[in-house]
Write a structure and sequence with these properties.
Elements lengths: L11 H13 L2 E5 L8 E5 L1 H5 L3 E5 L3 H16 L8 E7 L2 E7 L5 H4 L1 H7 L10 E5 L26 H4 L24 E5 H6 L5 E4 L5 E4 L5 H4 L1 E5 H7 L13 E4 L8 E4 L10
Parallel strand pairs: 3-6, 7-9
Antiparallel strand pairs: 1-2, 2-3, 4-5, 5-6, 7-10, 8-9, 8-11, 11-12
Amino acid sequence: MLPRFQNRELDAEDQAFIAKVKKYGWMVTNIKDEPGKTGWAYTTGLFEHYQHPEVIIFGLKAESRHSILNWIGENVKEGKAFTADQQHDWVLENHQCWSKAVQKKWYHDLLGWTNWFYRDGDEVENFPCVQAIWPDKDGHYPWEPEYGYSDQPLLYETELIAATMVHFVGDSELSAAEWPFDCDPHTSTYVSRCVVEDGALIELVVHDHDGDWQFIGPVADISADGCKVLCFHCVVERDPTIKTLAGLPVGMRALRDSISGEWEWQEVEKEEEQPKS
């Protein structure tokens, strides 16, 4: 038994977990995907045995997450650090991988077993953690506009929207600065397929006469491109410039031609509104 647990009450599951960490040096916990929320995996034991930050990774397949963290663990065991705020070429096959320090405010909602393992009474967790962040197939990372996925929060950020953590934090509250809209962040919106799947720029925003929001990419035929349904906050997480349209009235639309371009507001006639399907 590790010394830290000598005076703690432990059930069979607790004891089994501790035994595995002691035997192998670390454990990997995998959290399965849920509708609208990607899964993730994290280590427990790297800090205990090697004075190395624990590691967390999101997205990918569950078995890939597990394998990547075990590979990092094996390298840490041999003295090769997964150093924070650096890009590494040895973690993923044919791709680079960034490591970023995780803000401790996210520990409670993401690192269950690791929090328990390092907790001493009621004291705040005292271990470091880094996030392994992988690029899309074209080499773009989540902080780049061209990134083609939406399943890696940015845990080095401290605000919910900037960190894309709204789906992961229980009873989350957004400040007025983070969420200037008068509707719920989880409100369903209609988004062009090319925006969701290809990372295309949102060029047209419609706040239609029914009060619904539509976010349209650079397509000649909106119906042909198709649309996806996303939570409103997911759209803002992808493109924070959308927050400048918080005051767009019902029955209005806004257009722009670049990410830094100014929005032009126009009235929308009901017959102009696109079908939401």
